[in-house]
């Protein structure tokens, strides 16, 4: 029977008070999506508001268009799935074998403190099923607790978009949270590679990737946990 993968993305499309567009970073969806699809997984897409997921326009620039991102642009089925995600509140953790969160800056606003997301991750981990998140999406872990009431990331090797990467984007003072700081605050053993180099941490049921190039390696790490 094929594995059932839930991918949870942002519905948020404005970068703070700047008026600039943001959302999901395409590579961080496309690379894991095709990694899972090519394994034969059944994939369900969800977002806080349901419907169309906003895609960060910067992730559609020529230098950001990886092979997986280009594959997405030619894939009518994937594009229609991104346009019709199910509302996160309708998701049931028991219906899936694993959960993966692609990043982009959007999750810093609408998935960082989302009660439905927190419950989903807590129930998935409690059921001994893995959770993955890449780039800015590890922010979803900041308030998640284990069944014994500890922060999930406490004492765990974790990564996510680094403070120096956010500074390189000149967005340190725009974003509501810095992923690195929040993971450290909750007891995470934060690790990072050089800016925009591949870095993935697997610790128990938790898989985190640092940045866009870490998207497929993070998905591969999650697949390994499921195999």
Automatic annotation (TrEMBL):
InterPro entries: Class_I_gatase-like, DJ-1/PfpI, Prot/Nucl_acid_deglycase. Keywords: Glutamine amidotransferase, Lyase, Stress response. Transmembrane segments: none annotated. SUPFAM superfamilies: Class I glutamine amidotransferase-like. It comes from the Bacteria. Residues 26-219 form the DJ-1/PfpI domain. Belongs to the peptidase C56 family. HSP31-like subfamily. This is Type 1 glutamine amidotransferase domain-containing protein. It comes from Alteromonas gracilis.
């Amino acid at each position: 029977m094929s594995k059932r993968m839930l991918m949870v993305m942002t519905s948020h499309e404005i970068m703070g008070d700047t008026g600039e567009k943001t959302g999901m970073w395409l590579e961080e969806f496309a690379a894991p999506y095709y990694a899972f699809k090519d394994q034969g997984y059944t994939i369900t897409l969800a977002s806080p508001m349901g419907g169309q997921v906003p895609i960060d326009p910067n992730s559609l620039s020529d230098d950001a268009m990886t092979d997986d991102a280009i594959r997405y642009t030619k894939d009518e089925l994937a594009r229609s799935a991104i346009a019709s995600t199910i509302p996160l509140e309708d998701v049931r953790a028991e219906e899936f074998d694993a959960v993966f969160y692609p990043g982009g800056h959007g999750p810093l606003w609408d998935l960082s403190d989302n009660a439905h997301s927190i419950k989903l991750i807590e129930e998935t981990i409690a059921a001994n099923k893995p959770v993955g998140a890449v780039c800015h999406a590890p922010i979803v872990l900041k308030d998640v607790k284990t069944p014994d009431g500890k922060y999930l990331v406490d004492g765990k090797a974790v990564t996510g978009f680094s403070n120096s990467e956010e500074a390189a984007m000149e967005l340190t003072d725009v974003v509501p949270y810095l992923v690195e700081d929040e993971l450290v605050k909750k007891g995470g053993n934060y690790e990072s590679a050089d800016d925009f180099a591949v870095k993935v941490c697997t610790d128990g049921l938790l898989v985190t990737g640092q940045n866009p190039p870490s998207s497929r390696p993070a998905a591969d790490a999650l697949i390994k946990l499921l195999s």
